[in-house]
Design a protein that fits this description.
By secondary structure, the chain is mainly beta. It folds into three domains: about 150 residues, Chitinase A, domain 3 (Roll), CATH 3.10.50.40; about 100 residues, Chitinase A, domain 3; about 120 residues, Chitinase A, domain 3. Helices cover about 10% and strands about 40% of the residues. The protein contains six helices and 20 strands. A six-stranded antiparallel β-sheet has the order 1-2-5-6-3-4. Strands 7, 8, 9, 10, 11 and 12 form a six-stranded antiparallel β-sheet that branches. A hairpin with a 2-residue loop joins strand 3 and strand 4. Helix 1 packs antiparallel against helix 2. The protein is globular, with a radius of gyration of 23 Å. The N terminus is likely disordered.
């Protein structure tokens, strides 16, 4: 069967969506056919198979949107009923609405459907209910309603990156955890100006999970594709940094320049001791679990125990993706099922790091020490918006 010229099916989008944050060129190439309007089969036939329909009403003349760009758009969102545009449900006027494309800041139908749109253009996107996504459904729109969106692309803000050293091993992508050194300056008149931050002031590198929002969007996106040992210069426009408000000591509406070095990519080794049941837990879910922790001996065995939540007679509760716990635990718990018991061997950089863990005068975990956790997942079924 020939593919639709200007529509994606849901099963295709599910395949490419995890990749779009890590590979701008891949999604741009896949999405290129949707720039042609007037595809056969009709809008309804596409929505029945849980896809989305795209049609350019006006072809823009400016830059072309790609994953990782910051877009400013005006739009009108209406219900799509009985094969036609219905009642308006939401809109943004000439002041526009800003977001980073391809990182889950807008509904999935927009994230993929706006790729390849040129600045100044107007595009219609009809989005099936399943492609609206959790948290992006306007009020008074039911779970069975499709949306008719007309989007005007007002502005594109884009990173500039220059590799200073190539590094080795596989390129970094969304979900990878890395230790980096970075220094940031204001960038004015084409040159470095005032320095506002440097991880080297504290000697120890900083841990970052790509795509988790642990740093500003520009730096987050600028790390993609780097390799361990590599270094890169990243120039970040205000829209991908701290915007019109700034954030002390960053000035309002400031363009920033970062120089980044990827020091290492520590990883958690997970071993399932007892299988669980149900669906695996992931980012955005509130989970409850019991936790026991030991210092890891050089031979991999458990050393002195420093923690056991069962002594408090109640499980710990966190929201995955909020990174309110150690990165090693955060990443090690993902994918567990209810009732599962899992051992996690966690390197120091993803646990207590160079500071260790101290309680009063007592050292529970020495600095730069690897640890072992055993985690028993109690529950994990509540999605937090």
């Amino acid at each position: 069967m020939e593919p639709e010229i200007c529509s994606f099916q849901l099963r295709e989008v599910i395949t490419i969506m995890p990749k779009i944050f890590a590979n701008r060129l891949l999604l741009t190439a896949l999405a290129a056919p949707i720039l042609l309007a007037g595809c056969g089969g009709g809008i309804d036939s596409v929505l029945e198979s849980d896809g989305f329909h795209v049609e350019d009403l006006t072809i823009g003349t400016g830059d072309v949107a790609a994953t990782g760009d910051h877009l400013t758009v005006s739009f009108s969102t209406c219900l799509y009923t009985d094969g036609a545009k219905g009642r308006e449900m939401d809109r943004a006027g000439d002041d526009g609405h800003g977001f980073v494309l391809g990182v889950g800041e807008v509904m999935p139908g927009w994230d993929a459907g706006l790729v390849g749109m040129a600045e100044g253009g107007v595009r219609r996107i009809v989005v099936a209910p399943s492609m609206i996504g959790r948290g992006f459904r306007p009020r008074a729109v039911s779970a069975d309603d499709a949306l008719w969106c007309e989007v005007t692309l007002l502005d594109i803000a884009r990173l500039q990156t220059t590799d200073l050293a190539p590094g080795a091993d596989e390129p970094l992508g969304a979900g990878h955890y890395v230790a980096i050194h970075y220094t940031g300056w204001h960038y004015e008149n084409g040159a470095k100006a005032t320095q506002f931050i440097s991880s080297r002031d504290d000697s120890a590198p900083v841990g970052v999970m790509l795509g988790a929002g642990m740093v500003n969007p520009g730096l987050d996106i600028g790390l993609l594709g780097m390799r361990v040992g590599g270094s890169r210069r990243v120039i970040v426009p205000p829209a991908l940094a701290y915007g019109k408000q700034g954030r002390d000591p960053v000035k309002p509406d400031a363009t920033l320049l970062y120089e980044v070095e990827v020091v290492s990519r520590p990883e958690v080794v997970a071993e399932t001791i007892r299988e669980g049941e149900g669906e695996p837990v992931g980012s955005g879910e509130r989970v409850s679990f019991h936790l026991a922790g030991w210092v890891r001996e050089p031979d991999g065995s458990k050393g002195e125990q420093f923690q056991d939540s069962r002594n408090q007679r109640q499980p710990l509760t966190v929201v995955l993706g909020a990174f309110k716990i150690q990165p090693g635990l955060e990443l090690g718990i993902r994918g567990m099922k209810s009732g599962e018991l899992r051992r996690l061997d966690v390197p120091s950089a993803m646990a207590f790091g160079a500071r260790g863990w101290h309680r009063g005068d007592r050292t529970l975990v020495p600095p730069d020490t690897d640890v072992v956790y055993e985690v028993e997942l109690q529950s994990g079924s509540v999605q937090v918006k």
